[in-house]
Amino acid sequence: MPPEAFLVTRDPQVVRTIAFTLDSLDIDVQACSSVEESLHIINRHRYDLVLVDCADLAGPLDVLQAIRSSKANRNSIVFALMSGQTTVQQAFKMGANFALDKPVSAEQLTRSLRAAQGLIKLDRHGHWRNLHGARGAILVDTAVELPVTITSISESGVSIECARQLDEGGAARLRILLPGSKKPLDLKGEIIWTTIEGRAGIRFQVLPLESKQELETWIAKRALPSDAVFINAMVTHS
User: Fold this and answer.
1) Which range has the top average pLDDT, 65-74, 141-150, 225-234?
2) N or C: which end of the chain has fewer CB within 10 A?
3) What are the DSSP E strand ranges found in the chain?
4) Number of separate domains in the chain
5) pLDDT given for residue 225 in this prediction
6) Residue 222 structural domain
7) pLDDT for 124
8) Higher pLDDT, 143 or 193
9) pTM of structure
């Protein structure tokens, strides 16, 4: 069974571009132009990939939030299509994994969708789900150590979940034990975005050579593409 995608937009050009590109990657797509109808569908059917046009819809953040609140799609790969009305930071806080600027080019979309497709395949074989069980702890400015769940990771940063909201812009020290690793990684970074639910994105600032090599090896073994560098970890503009 091929992966399934759900596209929420009123822009016919977006529908044409995305439908053509998804078809070339053997991903089935269903498009919806109504926010109200999309919320109903999101709660009833699971999709591997969800794309939300934040530039074209009224209430796009409601759609993003509904995706992460639904049982069916809380772990789906989510794309936010942007053109200035919604910031990348807002989209990431609501659970988007990727942000693409409009107008979306075929080249940009293909590159990012191949990254997402790699994650979808990992999810179907269990590796991506195993990442959600990665153990870790974070030491924040207050010198309080909190246990964390790792939800995504790349060579540039990591997204986590913990018991309370962290301070955006603060420094953080992470100790992460990835699935299959024999010893934890000690990493330092900056908290780029946070939510009141305890989710946060951290950009690595100090990455020792040994830790960098171990992380690169771990990512390569699981076939995570280099495009995954922005997944829930980096804010490229505000």
Assistant:
1) 65-74
2) N
3) 4-8, 28-32, 49-53, 77-82, 98-101, 135-140, 145-153, 157-161, 171-177, 185-194, 199-206
4) 2
5) 42
6) 132-230
7) 52
8) 193
9) 0.58
Q: Quote the tokens at residue 95.
A: 């659970």
Q: Phi/psi of residue 141, each to 5°? A: -55, -30
* DSSP character at residue 133: T
Q: Which pLDDT band, with edges at 50, 70 and 90, does 237 fall under?
A: very low
187: CATH:
2.40.10.220
- State the DSSP code for 127: H
Which residue bears the tokens 């699971």?
46
Q: Over 34-74, what HEC string results?
A: CHHHHHHHHCCCCCCEEEEECCCCCCHHHHHHHHHHCCCCC
Contact 79, 112 (CB under 8 A): yes
Q: For residue 60, what is the domain's CATH number?
A: 3.40.50.2300
- Burial class of residue 94 in the structure, from the number of CB atoms within 10 Å of its CB (0-12 exposed, 13-18 middle, 19+ buried): buried
Q: What are the residues facing 171 on neighbouring strands? A: 190
Residue 231 predicted with pLDDT over 80: no
Is there a contact between 52 and 80 (Cβ–Cβ < 8 Å)? yes
Alpha carbon distance 186, 156 (integer Å): 14
Query: Average model confidence (pLDDT) for the chain?
Result: 77
Burial 142-156 (b: 16+ CB within 10 A, else e): eeeebebbbbbbbeb
Query: Of 71, 101, 125, which marks where a domain is finished?
Result: 125
